[in-house]
């Protein structure tokens, strides 16, 4: 669903009654899912630290500082509040890995997308062909793949690997978009953002977290794919609201709020307001479709969709307080 031209015109003319972007988001974002957290969060945080040290990923002080500011175990706890400790640990490890991988890909590919190819090709080789890693990041990915294969069924692990490859390809698309002139249009930007969100790779873990396997009817229901897309968009676009100041400062392009700002040549608070309206309609559509399909789902299918909604909830509550996006509190909403 998209915001109509009339709604955009009205939104651009409205006053913005908030002191800063965080207050603006809190006052206007529709969030029907209450705050929840996983009781194993502290153990998960310790596990992430150990796992990252094991593979040398926090040997670089800058990476270690980024992890402290990003709190991957907290995000895992908020978006996966009911899963067992073993699944939560994989989720937290993967979140940490993806933040490191994503930040490095952005740094390497900012000006020359071709420089990304060795890094991305190594990941595809590990995920698709089982090739041995040649870098510490590759070794961490291979170990993460092993964890998934041990916890999931072969079919679930295959879906995890497929979705993870889509994420890797998305980073190349993002790099091309970052260097493209003029900037890519909004819908293309949003298509790339759906891939770089890196959220769908987690969904097979929510299959594995259920007491029994999803039936083919559940997994391949005509509405289920649409629910997956809606949940990914709602979750990552919500994080985009809070990260927009950071992304604007560093020259980021693939961000929903910044895409609205470029498209309508408006202030960042106005762009955030437009983005909120689109997110609200997306969450509303997710809720409506879920209620429609819910009576047809098995208990495992219901749990799987709850895992999707967990990412919408988790990205919101995590983004509000995580130091990585603290600029949203500092920036005034009146300019």
UniProtKB/TrEMBL annotation:
Transmembrane segments: none annotated. Gene3D superfamilies: Farnesyl Diphosphate Synthase. Signal peptide: none annotated. It comes from the Bacteria. InterPro entries: Amorph_synthase (IPR048138), Isoprenoid_synthase_dom_sf (IPR008949). Coiled coil: none annotated. This is Sesquiterpene cyclase. It comes from Streptomyces umbrinus.
